[in-house]
Amino acid sequence: MTQRDVRRAIVIGGGIAGPVLGMFLRRIGVEVTIFEAREAPAEQEGAFLGIAPNGMNVLADLGVAEAVQARGAPFVGMRFENARGRRIGEIDQREAARRFGAGLVMIRRGALHAALAEEAVRRGVAIRYGMRLTDVDRSEPRQVVARFGEGGGGGEARGDVLIGCDGFRSRTRACAVPDAPAPGYTGLLDFGGFARCPGAPIEPGWSVMVFGRRAFFGAFAAPDGEIWWFHNGGEPAPGRGAAPGQLRERILALHEGDPGWIADVVRATPEVLGPWPLHDILTMPRWHDGRVCLIGDAAHATTPHAGQGASLAMEDGMLLARCLRDEPDPQQAFAAFERARRPRVEAIVRQARRMGNRKAVAGPVAEWLRDRALPLFLRLGAAAQERAYAYRIDWEARAA
């Protein structure tokens, strides 16, 4: 690609995919402005997530892995238990750096957003907050126009391409690919929190995952002993707002009869975060239209069950920038990107859906059947996880 083909890029969304894409585009000489709907950096937003080795390798290629690691915590491994506290499996990650080139890092979502935004700005990416996309005008053959609401000054921005990195509720998708399916609710609500609970039987760096009688509970012990936890419970329709005390009691009721330390952690949590209804997009007819392209959850929303959402978004940013570097026409670049990415990401989205389906059961018979199948399920899941971790993008290779 010659530099004059794509000189200015509009990026919608400043969470994970946007800053990573912006930094790779700056590497190939593209002027980038990120437009973020939030009024300010969301440093306290959400709970936490894991950046898998494949995602950390993308950050290492950018030279920002250390900045992210400094705000996160190294991950040692995970143990799986049933509702009676019996161990049914373990995945040891202590050799991940040797095997995959990087280890998994646990990090609070807000800290990751802040680290990526700071690095992007330092490398010349402009970020404008309070800019809520209202419309995308593609009437000009060699330009795309983004229009914004009154917040942040409103107005419009013109670029050679527009990339939607604005999550599973993507406004870019609604404007540019209106026939795309809406994200589907998976039947699970996600909650989380941070607690000091010295009695919790978790070693620093390890996670314990409990397939409970009615719901799933996962907890990670940070190096300072703080417990980072999440809960997945079944709900026929996405939950509405509830008082914090009601949320806590709801979670405790779903884990009645499960290992007692779960209730101790939930009770020790100053603020229960959530709920977050979990949605995904199993497939979409296309990810691009004209000079507009979708990446990350805007194109292939996945649930957190496979631990790959953030890492897939990072891979997307790297590969799309490489395609724009090597293809003379943006639409050809978008098509090449989609061809390369679709098989991998849709397989992981399906895997995450299957994993989520085993987290909440409807009664004792379903629990008994699930627990009998869990050892095989965990072996298959571990093999899929290794394949996901081993994936690498060669920046120096030419886009196919």
Automatic annotation (TrEMBL):
PANTHER family found in the cross-reference section: MONOOXYGENASE, PUTATIVE (AFU_ORTHOLOGUE AFUA_6G14510)-RELATED
Gene3D superfamilies with a match to the protein in the record: FAD/NAD(P)-binding domain
InterPro entries reported for this sequence: FAD-bd, FAD-dep_Monooxygenase_BioMet, FAD/NAD-bd_sf
Keywords: Monooxygenase, Oxidoreductase
Listed Pfam families: FAD_binding_3 (PF01494)
Protein name according to UniProt: FAD-binding domain-containing protein
Domain FAD-binding stretches: 9-176, 275-352
GO molecular function: FAD binding; monooxygenase activity
UniProt keyword annotation of Oxidoreductase present: yes
